[in-house]
Amino acid sequence: MEVLVVGAGGMGRWAGRTLGSAFSVAFADRDPAVAEAAAEAVDADARAVALDTGETFAAVCLAVPISAADEAIEAHADRASRAMLDVTGVMAEPVTAMRERLPDHERVSLHPLFAPENAPGNVAAVVDAPGPVTERAVEAIEAAGNDVFETDPAEHDAAMETVQAGAHTAVLAYALAAEDVREEFATPVSEALADLVETVTGGTPQVYREIQESFDGADDIAAAARRIADADGEAFEELYAEAGAWRGTGESDREPDERRERGDDA
Prior knowledge:
With 266 residues, this protein is α/β, with parallel strands linked by helices. 49% of the residues lie in helices and 17% in strands. α6 (153-177) packs across α7 and α6 crosses α9 (218-230).
């Protein structure tokens, strides 16, 4: 059983390497040399094919930029004999497009919530039309040490406004606003932020651009920063308490007294 991975960049290579335990792998890319290099790097048995190949495959996995997802689904639907998957990072539009273009096929939208070099990790999954081929793919992803959890397109895309667009905005804003200070002045908080800046800015600008263009969240961060900047006295303390009541990680579910006992408020 063979899977065609469309897009042979970092995420495409991750997909090919991960699915390669359960499928034979072929790569296609708009740059044939990139597809050839991916095939050589991922598996001795992997191969490269032309982007407009006339072959069909048991599954097609799209590892293209968010902005290219709809076009790729249209272009490669006829090459999928049984299933189509995507790892583009957005879900509402690809799921809708796959339903329309491949109503009788297995369909799964996946979002690895990490950069390929940081694998394994959490992988969000919309199992829109399950079957033996997509089950085999998900099992291969789990066998590689990833935690696959199910969601729906609306929940996923709303979550990305916070964990991607909002988080990236906050980190980049800190980097743009921060002054250069001697290392000795670093605090645990500033050191953690500096590490996050290094992580975010060590990626590919085009990837982060597409995230910002695809999901809201940046304006909310800007508005929150303005609220903090304008707050004085009790108003600031109220915002501090509001932030402490945030339940995004579960860490703030504990009562304040319990956090103080652990030293978390220090």
